[in-house]
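Journal club prep, notes for RB
We'll compare a predicted complex against what the paper describes. Inputs for the S-adenosylmethionine case:
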Amino acid sequence: MEYDKAYSNTENLFGTQPEKILKNHIKMLSGIRPVLDIGAGQGRHALFLARKGFIVDAIDPSRVAIETLSNKAAKEKLHIRAHQCGFEDFVPQTDYYSGIAVFGLLQTLSWRSIGLLVDKIGRWTGPGTLIFVTTFTTADPLYDHYAQTWTKIGKNSFSSDDGSIRTYFKPGEVLELFDPYETVHHWEGMGPRHRHGDGPLERHAKAEAVFLRRK
Ligand SMILES: C[S@@+](CC[C@H](N)C(=O)[O-])C[C@H]1O[C@@H](n2cnc3c(N)ncnc32)[C@H](O)[C@@H]1O
């Protein structure tokens, strides 16, 4: 997906509501350090957190995403520092984060990039950090479509001619991402039916998890 174009065409491409796992675990987040939203998009999670009083670093390579989010934050006088960059180039201005959100990003990355991201997140966490993750699993209704029409680039991972990627996690595989941390929440199943703008009705097989770094 070309996100600049998609975000220009549709105001709230992924809706306005944050993922429930963020709402449900917000009381476990410490306000002492900022929260990092990786692949923040149009900011439904960053805005939710900042409205609750958290300082948020939001990163996304999409210019339109970062402009939109910065404008909304300025209008509401919210403490969001929006950076137009990928996680690959981001340099945090804090020793570590109280929470790190990775909503809907992993399924668009190769396994190599996922490995790099997990390494970086490991360096950006400390005692008490919560990590929030949602991604797609191999039970996704579109898995067969991508497996048949795109080029296989890894285990359950496929690329289109223009470089878009879909990588699917096997059931339970998401738990291996942050092995040394405690799993506070884990759920896998069919997500709700939804549309992106005026696109077709979609439904995804999702894995969601919240991990806690104890020490
Ligand atoms: C499916 S959208 C999810 C947006 C948002 N997290 C949400 O749930 O509404 C994925 C986002 O990840 C961003 N993204 C893609 N590659 C990235 C990277 N290397 N680092 C950080 N964000 C990236 C995209 O620009 C896009 O905004």
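Talking point for the session: The domain at 3-7+31-194+202-212 is CATH 3.40.50.150 (Rossmann fold).
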